[in-house]
């Protein structure tokens, strides 16, 4: 079997069967094959093949809140397939995540989390999705316009058919507000240090999301990250925002 097919298979294997039923199989396979070809040609792509569709690894019906980001961290080893998350061992934390944790403390009154592991949120019904699912190392937005937006747009369209709240951070994420419905979205600047001061801080996304869920008759999310994997040791250089 050609190496491209092997890598594409690893990329696709992560998708939960319930999501396969909702997405255009040809578009998904084309994106996987395009990415696999880039890897075979020697392009350093993040995240690892098995993590590219990690946000879709859980059943489609579980999601109550969508946190939508831009594209993966471009620093080698930092992207894990969940928007704004990184490995439990990552030190220092990504600057955008530091700002998210500042708002988390302020909004929820909970202790500041210690690691970049956000898997407790995915366990609680939160999807951590990027608009674009891959990136060339060191080059933010390098894989825009390669088919990912159509796939993630289809994900958003499916989620919009039931009670859901969209937490849309930044302009690229906010392009989907019309699909979800602005009344079900929390929109603010990206938590990057370059923009967080323009309205991200003080936006109270976590408590507002739960209020919007309750208005739709859905259960609120338990945002507590005290059970996160804290990792051991250092994680290398700081990732880009």
Kindly describe this structure.
This protein has 241 residues and is of the alpha/beta class. The chain has one domain: Uracil-DNA glycosylase-like domain (Uracil-DNA Glycosylase, subunit E). 33% of the residues lie in helices and 10% in strands. It contains 9 helices and 6 strands; from the N terminus they run αααββααββαβααβα. The chain has helices at 3-12, 17-20, 25-40, 95-108, 119-123, 148-159, 171-174, 177-180, 205-215, and strands at 45-46, 65-69, 126-130, 135-136, 165-169, 185-188. Strands 3-2-5-6 form a 4-stranded parallel β-sheet, sandwiched between helices. A two-stranded antiparallel sheet has the order 1-4. Helix 1 (3-12) packs across helix 3. The protein is globular. Mean pLDDT is 93; it is low at 233-241.
Write a concise keyword list for the protein shown above:
two-stranded antiparallel ribbon, 241 residues, disordered C terminus, uracil DNA N-glycosylase activity, Ura-DNA_Glyclase_AS, UDG_fam1, EC 3.2.2.27, cytoplasm, 9 helices, alpha/beta, Uracil-DNA Glycosylase, subunit E
Task: Annotate the secondary structure layout.
Blueprint: H1 3-12, H2 17-20, H3 25-40, E1 45-46, E2 65-69, H4 95-108, H5 119-123, E3 126-130, E4 135-136, H6 148-159, E5 165-169, H7 171-174, H8 177-180, E6 185-188, H9 205-215
Helix pairs in contact: 1-3
């Amino acid at each position: 079997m050609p190496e491209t097919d092997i890598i594409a298979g690893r990329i696709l294997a992560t998708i939960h069967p319930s999501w396969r039923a909702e997405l255009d199989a040809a578009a998904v396979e084309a994106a996987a094959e395009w990415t696999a070809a880039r890897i075979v040609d020697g392009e350093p792509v993040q995240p690892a093949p098995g993590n590219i569709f990690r946000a879709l690894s859980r059943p489609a019906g579980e999601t109550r809140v969508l946190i939508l980001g831009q594209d993966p961290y471009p620093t080698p080893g930092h992207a894990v397939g969940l928007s704004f998350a990184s490995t439990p061992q990552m030190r220092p934390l990504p600057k955008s995540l530091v700002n998210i944790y500042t708002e988390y403390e302020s909004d929820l009154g909970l202790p500041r989390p210690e690691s970049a592991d956000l898997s407790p949120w995915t366990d609680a019904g939160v999807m951590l999705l990027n608009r674009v699912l891959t990136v060339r190392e060191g080059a933010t937005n390098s894989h825009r316009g390669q088919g990912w937006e159509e796939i993630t747009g289809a994900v958003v369209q499916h989620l919009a058919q039931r009670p859901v709240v969209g937490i849309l951070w930044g302009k690229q994420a906010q392009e989907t507000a019309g699909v979800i419905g602005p009344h079900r979205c929390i929109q603010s600047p990206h938590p990057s240090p370059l923009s967080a001061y323009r309205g991200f801080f003080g936006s109270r996304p976590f408590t507002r999301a739960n209020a919007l869920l309750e208005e739709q008759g859905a259960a609120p999310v338990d945002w507590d990250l005290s059970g996160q994997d804290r990792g051991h040791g250092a994680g290398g250089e700081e990732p880009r925002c």
